[in-house]
Specification:
Keywords: Plasmid. By secondary structure, the protein is of the alpha+beta class. The protein is built from 5 helices and 7 strands, in the order βααβββββαβαα. Helix 4 packs across helix 5.
Length: 164
C-alpha cells in the first residue's frame, strides 16, 4: 500500500492548483479549504497506479512525471494515451461510479496530488457549489479525452479501410 502524505503548505499549493483544469473557477478560499483534504503520493518508474476493472479510490493530479493509460483487450495491452503534468486520472471512474476502464502506469518517477474518493463524496454533502464546479470541470476534461479517442478511432478506420 502506498504512503499518502499530508500537504503541509496550503499557501504554496493553492496557486498551483488554480492552474489545474479541474480546479478552474474555484475561489481561493474554497481551494484553501480543500487543500488539507488532499494528499501527496509518489510512484517510481513503471509502477502500477491502478488496474483496469479495479474500483476507484482517488482522483490523481499529475504534478511531476508522466502516466501511460493502457487498455487490455483479450489480454493484449494497447496504450491509449500518455499524460503529463497538470492532467488528472481516475476522475472519470469516480464521477461515473464505475470501475477503471484503463490501467494506469507511471513513466519515470511521478508525483501526484490526490483527492480521495471519500473526500470528493463528502464535498457533495458539505459544499454543493464546489462539488458542481469540480464535476463540471471533470466533465470538460473527460469530453476532451473522448474527442481525442474518437479522433484516434477515425484515424485507425481510415488507415485500415478496404475499397469495395
Amino acid at each position: 500500500m502506498k504512503n499518502y502524505e499530508a500537504i503541509l503548505n496550503v499557501e504554496e499549493i493553492a496557486p498551483i492548483l488554480k492552474k489545474i483544469s479541474i480546479f478552474t473557477g474555484i475561489s481561493n478560499s474554497k481551494l484553501c479549504k480543500l487543500v488539507p483534504s488532499l494528499k501527496k503520493v509518489e510512484y517510481e518508474d513503471s509502477e502500477l497506479i491502478f488496474s483496469q476493472g479495479s474500483p476507484p479510490s482517488h482522483i490523481y493530479i499529475i504534478m511531476r512525471g508522466r502516466v501511460k493509460l493502457i487498455e487490455y483487450v483479450n489480454y493484449t495491452p494497447y496504450q491509449l494515451f500518455e499524460l503529463g503534468e497538470g492532467n488528472c486520472i481516475g476522475e472519470a471512474s469516480i464521477i461515473g461510479i464505475q470501475t477503471h476502464e484503463v490501467t494506469a502506469v507511471s513513466k519515470g518517477n511521478t508525483e501526484f496530488i490526490v483527492l480521495p474518493k471519500k473526500v470528493f463524496l463528502e464535498i457533495f454533502e458539505t459544499d454543493k457549489e464546489l462539488f458542481c464546479l469540480l464535476v463540471l470541470n471533470i466533465a470538460k476534461e473527460v469530453s476532451k479525452r473522448l474527442a481525442k479517442t474518437d479522433n484516434l478511432l477515425l484515424q485507425y478506420i481510415d488507415k485500415n479501410k478496404h475499397p469495395y
